[in-house]
Amino acid sequence: MFRNLQPLVLASGSPRRREMLAELGLEFTVAVAAIAEVAGAGEGPADFARRLALEKAAAVAPGFPEAWVLGADTVVVLEDRILGKPADAGQAEAMLAALSGREHTVWTAFALCRGREQAVAAVSTRVWFAELDPALIRAYVATGEPLDKAGAYGVQGRGGALVAKIEGSVSNVIGLPLAEVTTALITHDIIVPS
After folding, report:
1. Which of 35, 41, 164, 192 is the most interior residue, by most CB within 10 Å?
2. Full-prediction pTM beyond 0.85?
């Protein structure tokens, strides 16, 4: 669907992000950035996600001076509380119980860096969970799927059965707002339709 005009590096270990870029026909290298994912005092979820996305891209960029580096970060927000990746099964169950029958917001930010050039954006999507029976929560957590995902669920996998409604970008919930990322890549002459 697209072809590269310039080299691209994905500063993320997320298999979902790799799959989404590959499905667009893009060529890219993967280089994972080791960044502490801790919100600063008073830092809102959109700012937190933008900062992490930029830090990931900026950490990888010096190793690829001729390439554009794409960093991304996804956070799940219930009311004012950021739900990161659960530390264990118990924490995953608690997160899912808190999300049960409620609306929450998923923010994914992405950053493009090459040298001193930077572009950063964040996209939000509203998600509503169905009412979840405790047995369903335990069964889902037992699959292991929630343990490496912000908010303890993956909408693209078994966790899709927990979601009653999505308002906005589904790819954003998965971890990369494809429409916005594609537009940014085209705008910076990194890719073109093939």
Report:
1. 35
2. yes
